[in-house]
Amino acid sequence: MDNASDSDALLVNLNAEKADLMTPVIVFLAVLMCAGLVGNVFVVIYYGFRARKSTHSLFICTVAIYDLISCGISIPFEIVDLRLFITFEDSTACKVLRFVNHFAAIGSICILLEIAIDRFRRICRPVQKQLNHQQAKLACGLSVVVSVVYSWPTFVFYTSVPVDVRSKNGQTVTGHDCTTTKEKEYSVYLLVFNFFYMASFVVVAVILCVLYSLVGRMLVKHNHKMTAAKPTSEGIETSLTDDTTAKTKQTEKVTSNTGDKPTQQANHKTTHLDRTTVKFTMIMLVITVVFVISFLPFLALLLWRVAKGGYIVDALSDSGLVAFQFGLRSYFLNSALNPFTYGFFNSRFRDFLYTMVCVCRRKTSGINDKTIGSLERMLTDMTATNSDF
């Protein structure tokens, strides 16, 4: 009985040491969680309720929902996992944690791929039939199905694994870690599972690179044409739009007066639509690049851990273990940084945030209803325009 009590006390002490060692990782995750929760809530409000209905607002809102799942469920679970570094004994909680992590990440990948395809079709194939709002909803629903299909093996391969932990004085106790199973009969399947994940990631990354390369090339060519065109020239103009249906306008303009008002309005509208297209494409390109970069360390370390085998903590120094834990959670960067990307490229989203903050501050400060009503009307007018950018 005394031996059991001594072992339990030693295990608790060893776990406390590991948890303290993981403090930098926990702080890092806590910062990402707070930033991601606040930022993505505003993204959902703006693109889900304030912005006009379009395919791109629906896609951005869906990505933000996946990011909210990561920041609101996955990251808190990960912090708990780090605090219970060698005392995580609940296998069911472990399986649910890993499933949610995979589900949110894969869902985001699916939406980013769908957005890239939509961008390619609208910009490089503007005269073809485009994705409408209803089809975009179906595409977002398909991402949920794909995420579940890709994520369900986590219920098989992840569990609370018994591990032997050695103290500094050489005494060994048995703890539990939430990780992939170490049973030999699953080793081959686990290797295939992780290799399939890596292969899928590489294929999707290549597709994204190719599609955005073609889109970027087309935008550069179009920009050159717009720059070379003269207001008085006679020709055909094609407007690249972000509406729920593709709108390709062919306008033959024959003018003799450069001050003709309808011609100036048409040119302004075309330039405006092109600017909107470029901005949205740039937003999704940056988000895609950040996603790929943030996901690479996680996948690489995952494969290395499977190939290495055994209890990985024994093979690493304290600093190496901290770096390893950072790398395993690198993909959370994407979920927290996305709202900042929207804010950097989208001036209307920045204005929306500023107005929302002002409204909240006025209400908490007890400013009169007239002032609050004026700010709220300003917010409504700002987000009721034809462009979200």
The helix tally amounts to 12
Query: Stretches where pLDDT falls below 50 for ≥5 residues?
Result: 232-273
SS content category? mainly alpha
Cα-to-Cα separation, first versus last residue: 69 Å
CATH-assigned homologous superfamily of the largest domain: Rhodopsin 7-helix transmembrane proteins
Q: What best-fitting shape do the alpha-carbon axes yield?
A: elongated
Strand order of the largest sheet: 1-2
List key phrases describing it.
389 residues, mainly alpha, Rhopdopsin 7-helix transmembrane proteins, two-stranded antiparallel ribbon, 72% helix
What would your notes on this structure say?
With about 400 residues, this protein is mainly alpha-helical. The chain folds into 2 domains: about 1-345, Rhopdopsin 7-helix transmembrane proteins (Up-down Bundle); about 345-389. The protein is built from 12 helices and 2 strands, in the order ααααααββαααααα. It has helices at about 1-20, 25-50, 55-85, 90-125, 135-150, 155, 185-230, 260-310, 320-330, 330-345, 345-365, 370-380, and strands at about 160-165, 170-180. It has a two-stranded antiparallel ribbon with strand order 1-2. Helix 10 crosses helix 11 (about 345-365). The longest helix is centred in the C-terminal third of the chain and has 48 residues, at about 260-310. The radius of gyration is 26 Å and the shape is elongated. About 30% of the residues are buried. The model is unreliable at about 230-275 (pLDDT under 50). Keywords: G-protein coupled receptor, Membrane, Receptor, Transducer, Transmembrane, Transmembrane helix.
